[in-house]
UniProtKB/TrEMBL annotation:
PANTHER family: TRANSCRIPTION TERMINATION FACTOR 2, MITOCHONDRIAL, TRANSCRIPTION TERMINATION FACTOR, MITOCHONDRIAL. Monomer. Belongs to the mTERF family. It is found in: Mitochondrion. This is Mitochondrial transcription termination factor 2. Pfam families: mTERF. One of its GO terms (biological process) is termination of mitochondrial transcription. Keywords: Mitochondrion, Transcription, Transcription regulation, Transit peptide. GO terms for molecular function: nucleic acid binding.
């Protein structure tokens, strides 16, 4: 899913601890001696306990060696909590190697975190799998009270626990917001949907689907969301058309500002050498033209042109711009293997999802292999 590739959570730790200073790209000669001196300053009890749990100390030293210098650590306590959840020695070692700051978090804070995550993930086996996959999301959080209130709010909205647990691991930043901020954004989204002609009956389904596909919309300010909708109205799009965008673009429209949209529109207008009215029709066919950045649009158009596809063909089927150059090349090769020359035909056979393309390809292949006549069918011959 696209929403998985957008924003990584910013680390805000359960406990207050020192930040690492940025290290130079190349180690000076004396640094090799300093490393030994630093190892002498490490908390020996911490190191020994980590060895006890088969943790690779070298990985921690290279990743976040500062945790080994801390006077107070909780290696055994953290390991015990993970064991209670069903983690074996290998899983515990893996978690501590990838998220060493876990050992400087107090057991009380971790226990609270466990209870909060269990609000949406009651199965301990599933919970430990989530922690193993996303240890930083579990051990690093800004405000546990915010987390609790936001989880409760999302449950009240009607989001399923499995969706909220996905938010915890891959979109943890939205829980850093005060719950009032998230409520304000949700209220604005609901009002916006109704203002452009959406119905009360469909609003909840639309909202839950929107959040499930793109929770990062909650990181946008309500002001920016309003400005984006107003900008589209000034561009001549009707409420019905904007409602279509809200349904098709999965909320990514709200992650843009008017300037981004204007840049994309101006580029597309020049690239396709079309009028404002023609461009509007292109956007209605392919709403992605609004949110793809200029470099992305330029790369995809150039990729199509290199394959012998004309601007006129792209204008006729602009949805092809939703495909990356790599996907385009792969599909053209497959079609060429059947003798189908895409540059001489319609781009519809190139377009669509992977499933749709494979179905189309299968039909073309079957048609090509079909005999000219059915040898077992009776012939209509006049006597």
């Amino acid at each position: 899913m696209l929403w998985k590739l957008l924003v990584r959570s910013q680390p805000c730790r359960l406990c207050f601890f020192r930040k690492m200073q940025s290290t130079p790209k190349y180690k000076p000669f004396l640094a090799y001696f300093t490393t030994d001196r630093q190892s002498n300053k490490e908390n020996k009890r911490t190191v020994e306990t980590l060895y006890k749990f088969s943790v690779d100390i070298r990985k921690i030293r290279s990743l976040k060696g500062w945790v080994l210098l801390e006077d107070e650590t909780y290696v055994e306590e953290v390991a015990n909590i993970l064991q209670e959840l069903g983690a074996d020695e290998a899983v515990i070692a893996s978690i501590l190697e990838r998220c060493p700051e876990a050992i400087v978090c107090s057991p009380a804070a971790i226990d609270t975190q466990r209870k909060l995550w269990q609000l949406v993930c009651k199965n301990e086996e599933e919970l430990i799998k989530l922690i193993e996959q996303f240890p930083e999301s579990f051990f690093i959080v800004k405000n546990q009270e915010n987390l609790k209130l936001n989880v409760q709010f999302f449950q009240e909205l009607g989001l399923k626990n499995v969706v909220i647990s996905r938010f915890l691991t891959t979109a943890s930043n939205i829980f850093h917001n005060p719950v009032e901020k998230n409520k304000e954004t949700i209220k604005l989204l609901q009002e916006s949907y109704l203002n452009v002609g959406g119905s009360e009956a469909n609003m909840k389904v639309w909202l839950l689907k929107l959040l499930s596909q793109n929770p990062f919309i909650l990181l946008r300010s309500p002001t920016t969301i309003k400005e984006t909708l107003e900008f589209l109205q000034k561009q001549g799009f009707t409420n019905f058309e904007i409602l279509q965008f809200l349904s098709k673009l999965k909320g990514f429209l709200f992650q843009l500002c008017p300037r981004d949209i204007q840049n994309s529109i101006s580029f597309s207008k020049n690239a396709f050498e079309c009028t404002d009215r023609d461009l509007k029709q292109l956007v209605l066919k392919c709403p992605a033209l609004l949110y793809y950045s200029v470099p992305v649009l330029e790369e995809r158009i150039q990729g199509l042109l290199k394959e012998g596809i004309s601007i006129a063909q792209i204008r006729e089927t602009p949805m092809v711009l939703e495909l990356t150059p790599q996907i385009v090349q792969y599909r053209i090769r497959k079609l060429n293997s059947l003798g189908y020359r895409i540059k001489d035909g319609h781009l519809a056979n190139l377009n669509g999802t992977k499933k749709e393309f494979e179905a189309n390809f299968g039909k073309i292949q079957a048609k090509k292999e079909r005999p000219l006549f059915n040898p077992v069918a009776p012939l209509n011959v006049e006597e």
